[in-house]
Design a protein that fits this description.
Strand order of the largest sheet: 7-6-8-9-1-10-16-15-11-12
Shape: globular
Distance between the termini: 16 Å
CATH superfamily of the largest domain: Thiolase/Chalcone synthase
Number of strands: 16
CATH class of the largest domain: Alpha Beta
Number of helices: 14
Number of domains: 2
Strand content: 15-25%
Largest sheet: 10 strands, mixed
CATH topology of the largest domain: Peroxisomal Thiolase, Chain A, domain 1
Order of helices and strands: EHEEHHEEEHHHEHEHEHEHEHEHHHEEEE
CATH architecture of the largest domain: 3-Layer(aba) Sandwich
């Protein structure tokens, strides 16, 4: 990537189960505060989930919310907050200091539309399936580009705007797409990351339950427990994170604050199984990202793992991470899902955000809820239960993997 324009992060907008801005999110990660709670959804009943409690009316009107989707609402919130954080938007008069036609929106999603279709089927079932009661808003709500499209309507952005379906690797894919479009000079500003409304579809809970992969625990805050010997599954969560990305020269010209530089990335596929992960391809993805960045494994300070708290998935990933970083004395390894559960399409973007402040405070947030480490998840440099302070953090490797064997890795460097 040496000959391409350098891409930097200049703003962060997020909605997570344990914080609606980067400051609160980071504080809760360092304090060990979980965002998982008891949750009930039709046909499934009582379960657990990570719920994002952001103020949805901060940047939208009620009419816009009623017509749109939960994923769209999350995307609108994150996009506005990212632009405000980058000092590119004034919320008091809704004016932006950016060119609407040269701004791109790239939103990673796990899936989109299931929530809306389930809701409509449920509604017409109460009227003996009389389709006269089917909402005419259904189609624009369920198209895959909906979350990105809702952002364009809210902010008046006229540049390219679309979603990238990448299962649980989608948050990283949105970030990668934004960086690439800037490098290709297709846009001058990118809003990039991922969102998820997954907790509003009973189907995802039912499917994970049928696989024996839905987390159970008497204490919701302890249900998401990657690497723990007694882990028993995924906590389904909602949320989102969008970044403002700019070319370095543009960011410097306007005197922007820079969170970090996108140094390298890689995406590959297992080509092996519908749901089971494959350490060999994860290994190859990490090594490809390192090659893209032009650095060695020993130069990575933090590896943020994807680990979802499933018995087999965590073991496969740990094997891959050990193979790549087993000899890296200074590399620390953590996991963000232990705090917020699995935010699906938002996971990669949100989990990277939780680690970005390490460039400033030289502190690495831990993986919580590990009472007894699974011997098969033992890794050198694993940070468990309490934060670890180090002399300096210069590089972060963010991992996100998904169903159908998609793997992604993004490397961000201190600027």
């Amino acid at each position: 990537m040496a000959d391409l324009p350098r891409i930097v992060i200049t703003g962060v907008g997020l909605a997570s189960p344990n914080g609606d801005n980067l400051t609160d999110f980071r504080a809760n990660l360092l304090a060990g505060v979980s965002g998982v709670e008891k949750y009930s959804i039709r046909h499934v009943g009582e379960t657990l989930a990570g719920v994002a409690h952001f103020d949805a009316l901060k940047h939208q009107k009620r009419k816009e919310q009623r017509r749109g989707t939960r994923a769209g609402s999350i995307a609108v919130y994150c996009a506005n907050e990212a632009l405000i954080d980058a000092e590119l938007f004034k919320p008091e008069n809704r004016t932006g200091v950016y060119a609407a036609a040269r701004t791109g929106i790239y939103v990673g999603i796990t899936e989109h539309g299931n929530v809306e279709t389930e809701n409509e089927v449920h509604a017409v079932a109460e009227y003996d399936f009389d389709l006269a009661f089917w909402s005419h808003h259904h189609n624009p709500r369920t198209v895959a580009n909906n979350p990105a499209g809702e952002v364009t309507l809210n902010l008046g952005i006229t540049g390219p705007a679309y979603c990238l379906g990448g299962a649980c690797a989608a948050g990283n894919l949105g970030l990668i797409q934004g960086a690439q479009m800037l490098q290709l000079d297709q846009v001058d500003l990118a809003l990039a990351g991922g969102v998820s409304e997954s907790i509003h579809t009973f189907g995802i809970f039912a499917s994970f339950a049928s696989q024996g992969a839905l987390a159970r625990h008497t204490d919701p805050c302890r249900a998401s427990r990657p690497f723990d010997k007694d882990r028993n599954g995924i906590v389904v969560s909602e949320g989102g994170c969008l970044y403002t990305l700019e070319r370095l020269e543009d960011a410097q010209l306007r005197g922007a604050r820079i969170y970090g530089e996108v140094l390298g990335y890689a995406v590959n596929s297992d080509a092996r199984d519908f749901v089971l992960p494959f350490a060999e391809r994860q290994n190859e993805c990490m090594r490809a990202a390192l090659a893209s960045a032009g650095i060695g494994a020993s130069e990575i300070d933090i590896v943020n793992t994807h680990a979802t708290s499933t018995p087999s998935g965590d073991v496969e990933e740990c094997r891959a991470v050990r193979e790549v970083f087993g000899d890296s004395e200074g590399t620390r390894i953590n996991n963000t899902k232990s705090f917020i559960g699995h935010t699906m399409g938002a996971a990669g973007a949100l989990e990277l955000a939780g680690n970005l402040p390490s460039f400033d405070d030289n502190t690495i947030h831990p993986t919580i809820n590990v009472d007894e480490l699974d011997p098969e998840c033992q890794m050198r440099g694993l940070v468990l239960n309490t934060p670890t302070e180090v002399s300096r953090v210069d590089t972060i490797l963010n991992l996100s993997f998904g169903m159908l064997g998609i793997n992604s890795a993004v490397i961000v460097r201190r600027f």
